[in-house]
Design a protein that fits this description.
This protein is mainly alpha-helical and 246 residues long. Helices cover 64% and strands 5% of the residues.
C-alpha cells in the first residue's frame, strides 16, 4: 500500500516536471508531494490533530444543541453509562437538523443529528453510538484521513499547473476534511462496526435486539438517502445481526 501511494506521488511530480518550468507553480508541486508523503506516514498524533480540526470545523458550521436543549439532555442520559473503550474516551454532541446522520472522529468526537434521534428509541440510538465507536476503535477513521490526504495531493498537483482546481486545492482545511467526515466505508468495515455495536450493547447491558430494529428503520429511508451512501444495505445488515440473536 505504501509503495502504491509513493508511486502515485512520483507519477504526479514526473508529469509536471516534463512541462516547461515557467508554466509550473513549483510550490504547488512540492505541496502536493508533501501531502502524498503525509498520507503514508500519518501518525496517531496526526490523526488526532486532524480529527480535532474536523470537529471544530463541523461544530462551527452546524447548529450545535446547547446543553439545556432536550436533544442534548437526552443524548447525555443515553451515554451516561457508557464506559471508556480500551482506555479511549469520547465526547458527544448533537446537531440540530432534520437530516438523519451520525459520525465519529478518530479523536473520540461523536456527533449525532437530531433527525436520527427523532426516528429511533433510546436503545436503537445506543446501537448507532456503539457502531460509530466501532469505526474509531477499528481504525476506519485513520484510514479515512489517509484517503483525504491522498485526494489533497492529487488536487494540489493539478492546481500546480493553474486552472480551476487551484481554488479547490487552496481552500479552507474544512473543505478538505469534509471528505473524511462523509467517507464511504467498505462492506467489511461496516460489518465490523455493526458487530462492535452489537457487542457494545450486550457488554453495557443494553437491549441487543435494538441493533436490528435500528437498521430496519434506516432501511426505510430509501436507497437515494445521503446517509445510505456511506452506510449501505441496512436491511441485509439487520438480517445478519438478527442471526446473532438466536
Amino acid at each position: 500500500m505504501k509503495k502504491a501511494f509513493l508511486f502515485l506521488i512520483m507519477l504526479i511530480c514526473f508529469s509536471f516536471f516534463t512541462k516547461p518550468v515557467l508554466a509550473l507553480n513549483l510550490n504547488g508541486v512540492l505541496d502536493a508531494a508533501m501531502d502524498g508523503v503525509k498520507a503514508v506516514t500519518l501518525s496517531d498524533a496526526d490523526v488526532v490533530t486532524m480529527s480535532k480540526q474536523v470537529a471544530e470545523y463541523s461544530d462551527k458550521n452546524k447548529q450545535l444543541a446547547p446543553d439545556s436543549d432536550k436533544y442534548a439532555q437526552r443524548l447525555k442520559s443515553l451515554v451516561s453509562k457508557v464506559r471508556p473503550e480500551k482506555g479511549r474516551t469520547f465526547n458527544f454532541r448533537v446537531y440540530l437538523t432534520k437530516e438523519v446522520n451520525a459520525f465519529a472522529l478518530a479523536d473520540g468526537s461523536i456527533r449525532v443529528y437530531s433527525g436520527l434521534m427523532d426516528m429511533m428509541d433510546d436503545h436503537e440510538l445506543r446501537f448507532v453510538i456503539g457502531h460509530e465507536i466501532g469505526h474509531v476503535m477499528n481504525g476506519d477513521s485513520k484510514a479515512s484521513v489517509s484517503r483525504a490526504y491522498t485526494i489533497s495531493a492529487v488536487r494540489k498537483g493539478v492546481a500546480a499547473q493553474g486552472g480551476r482546481a487551484e481554488k479547490l486545492a487552496s481552500s479552507d482545511i474544512g473543505e478538505l476534511l469534509s471528505t473524511f467526515v462523509t467517507a464511504q466505508y467498505s462492506q467489511k468495515q461496516e460489518k465490523a462496526a455493526d458487530d462492535y455495536g452489537f457487542d457494545f450493547m450486550k457488554r453495557n447491558g443494553f437491549k441487543a435486539a435494538s441493533s436490528v430494529t435500528a437498521l430496519r428503520k434506516l432501511a426505510t429511508l430509501g436507497g437515494d438517502h445521503s446517509f445510505l451512501s456511506s452506510h449501505p444495505e441496512p436491511g441485509l445488515r439487520a438480517s445478519r445481526l438478527e442471526g446473532r440473536l438466536k
